[in-house]
Write a structure and sequence with these properties.
Layout (H helix, E strand, L loop, with lengths): L5 H8 L3 H8 L7 H14 L5 H7 L5 E6 L5 H16 L3 E6 L4 H8 L9 E4 L6 H5 L7 E4 L8 E4 L2 H14 L5 E4 L9 H15 L9 E2 L6 H14 L5 E4 L2 H13 L9 E5 L13 E5 L1 H20 L17 E3 L2 E4 L2 H4 L5
Parallel strand pairs: 1-2, 1-3, 3-4, 4-5, 5-11, 6-7, 6-8, 8-9, 9-10
Antiparallel strand pairs: 10-12
Helix pairs in contact: 1-2, 1-3, 5-12, 8-9, 10-11
């Protein structure tokens, strides 16, 4: 049986094809009775909107790419779920690409993978530099996630410096004075880690706690095994400590394991706090205190910004559909975060 078309729905409902189109596009000036009749015909005939045709008529494919460093990092997997949900609500399909934090892969993504099948990119860069991003002529519209590399692109993030300052201040408020930052790094250009380290140091300075460079515990990757190895090494060789600020939850979960294996009680001996509020931290023993970014808001704002830029790029007059002809300046959007306190800092908090 041939796939039903708009004219078949119009004939079945006894209305014009234009009226069917108005109902499909949810235009306001259609009576409730007509809308009900048309929707009943759509359901009965099994009509489905040809999204590909709709996008192509506007010079688009309806496909956007989400590019993240590693898909098996829970934060990025959870973020991807939110991005897909937001995109589907706008009739967009999401292509997910793993860059491996490799500069060549990130550059390829930035260039649209050398083809025209992607309308735009949501990119979480780790290896790119400001110079890489400065000249994007001919590249698809792009929204960056994480720390801002330059001011010439739309950007969505939480206030990482402020969040780390808040988390460190909480540890200090518990009476902890010897705090290590697991994953901390002072080197410029390291994006999120650098911003969180600045927040850590600012909180120490505010509390008049002397900063010791040995308080920064380097890691090769932001993963559980690295967190466990780094904390085990600190227990053997490093300065004594009574709290850990871990720059993501994976490092924090690894740290909890190392502390347990060495007979260190959490939070009695060492308080631990992480970043990202991933699901695993709600089921660890003890449960993990963490900085919780609003992942849903990150996804929503990123997809909204990207859709706007795609409309700017493909509308005949260079302006978004039905919008002012002026192209807006790049947007720097900061979304909310909150401190979630659980057992790793608060004993039996939440029970």
């Amino acid at each position: 049986m041939a796939r039903p078309r708009i004219k078949d729905v119009a004939r079945h409902a006894g209305v014009s094809e234009k009226t069917v189109s108005n109902v499909i596009n949810d235009y306001a000036h259609v009576s409730d009775r007509t809308r009900q009749v048309v929707r009943a015909s759509i359901e009965q005939l099994g009509y489905r909107v040809n999204l590909a045709g709709r996008h192509l008529r506007k010079g688009r494919t309806g496909i956007i790419a989400l590019v993240v460093p590693e898909l098996d990092i829970p934060y990025f997997a959870e973020l991807a779920r939110h991005v897909i949900r937001e995109a589907e609500a706008r009739s967009l399909t999401v292509l997910i690409h793993q860059s491996g934090a490799d500069r060549a892969h990130e550059l390829a993504a930035l260039a649209g993978f050398g083809s025209t099948f992607v309308d735009g990119i949501i990119l979480s860069p780790l290896a790119l530099t400001a110079d890489d991003l400065r000249d994007r002529a001919g590249f698809p519209p792009t929204v960056l996630l994480g720390e801002l590399l330059e001011e010439g692109a739309d950007h969505v993030a939480i206030d990482n410096e402020g969040a780390a300052r808040e988390a460190t201040r909480h540890l200090i408020g518990l009476g902890r004075r010897s705090i290590l930052a697991v994953g901390g790094h002072d080197a410029p250009g390291l994006g999120t880690a650098e911003a969180r380290t600045r927040g850590f140091r600012a909180a120490l300075a505010k509390a008049r706690i002397a900063y010791d460079p040995a308080a920064l515990v380097p890691v090769d990757a932001f993963r559980m095994p690295e967190g466990a190895r780094a904390v085990a090494r600190a227990l053997r060789e490093g300065p004594r400590f009574d709290a850990l600020l871990c720059l993501n939850d994976q490092l924090a979960l690894g740290a909890l394991r190392a502390l347990h294996e060495h007979g260190v009680k959490v939070p009695e001996d060492v308080a631990v706090i992480g970043f990202d509020d991933v699901e695993g931290g709600r089921f660890s023993v003890p449960t993990l205190s963490t900085v919780a970014p609003d992942k849903g808001a990150v996804a929503k704002v990123a997809v909204q910004l990207l859709q706007h830029r795609i409309e700017e790029a493909t509308a005949p007059d260079g302006a978004p559909d039905g919008a002012d002809a002026r192209v807006q300046a790049p947007q720097d959007r900061i979304v909310a975060h909150r401190l979630v306190l659980r057992e790793s800092t608060e004993g039996h908090a939440g029970r």
